[in-house]
Amino acid sequence: MRWRSVTVVCCALFLAGCGDQSREGEAVAALPAGPEARALRLPLDAYRVSADESAMLDHAADTLVETCMRGKGVPWTRLPRFRVDDAPNRRRYGVIEEEAAKRFGYHPVHDPGELRKEQAWQARDDRLTSEEHVAAYGEDGKSGCMRDGYVRVNQGAAEGESRALRRLDQESYDTSAKHPDVLSAFRKWSACMREQGFSYSDPAEAVGDPRWRTPVPTGDEIRTASADVRCKKRSSLVAVWSGVERELQERGLREHRDQFAALADGKSRWLEDAESIISRRLPSHGPSSERAGQVGR
Questions:
Q1: How confident is the model over 210-236, as pLDDT tens digits?
Q2: Spatial contact of 31 and 98, defined as CB atoms under 8 Å apart
Q3: What is the pLDDT at residue 26?
Q4: Which run of H or of E encompasses 30?
Q5: Model confidence, pTM
Q6: Which of 58, 79, 99, 162 is deepest in the core (most CB within 10 A)?
Q7: In the chain, which residues have pLDDT < 50?
């Protein structure tokens, strides 16, 4: 069992949205975020924990687990600090990257650094002896040093993903999708798709097509997703949609200025506390920090 540092807020519209939504038996795809995804930023991004910050919080917890395990006289290899590229809105408006569409269609795509981190954690778990597993996870699989480490790291996370942030995130998405400018962009996108032989009223209908519920992307899926990306560019859909949503989020932040200022301060203190946990501990007995940078990038 893995304890998680943060809860990632995901839009529910797209089946290939943020977070790990791979279906059972589905191949796990990894691809660095393209320039389109990296450039897509929204005001709320600054208030949530990024993928790389989440990896740092995991490393802080792992640092505490190492100390706890040593206190029990049980060996533990602390893993390196993995680096994860952050593109929080990569699939917020569906597939927007030509390379991702060409290789994986609408199927989920993961950052390679994040995938390497997950694989390293899982590989370590798979190597644990019975004694080590009980010390790390407890007899019930839900306690032990792992639980203690994450509870300590998450002490500062009470407001880490507040209800106000989640509410504004969802409201700005839902409201923007109904805005006249966005609806006009949907129509242009739909007309472009028809010209290429595909009949969908909006991107949500395309990405939600039940034909794509397959372990690996089909040829039809890849052709559809590639046309989807081309038509988004031709209709300026992503630029229009993100522009409308950006204005809605900025308005919400102004209306709740004090609340979000407190949230930003809380996040800053939470991350500083985690960094201090890492810096106070002895160097890892696992891979060197130099290799950690190579592995995590």
A1: 999 999 999 999 999 999 999 999 999
A2: no
A3: 52
A4: strand 29-30
A5: 0.83
A6: 58
A7: 1-25, 160, 282-297
Phi-psi region for residue 199, left (φ > 0), alpha (ψ -120 to 50) or beta?
Answer: beta
pLDDT per position as a tens digit, 178-195: 999 999 999 999 999 999
Q: 3-class SS at 92?
A: strand
- Residues 6+ positions from 213 with CB-CB distance below 8 Å: 23
According to DSSP, residue 94 is labeled B
Is residue 107 within 8 Å of residue 232, measured between CB atoms?
A: no
Q: Are 243 and 233 in contact (CB under 8 A)?
A: no
DSSP structure string for 221-243: HHHHHHHHHHHHHHHTHHHHHHH
State the CB neighbour count (10 A cutoff) for residue 93: 25
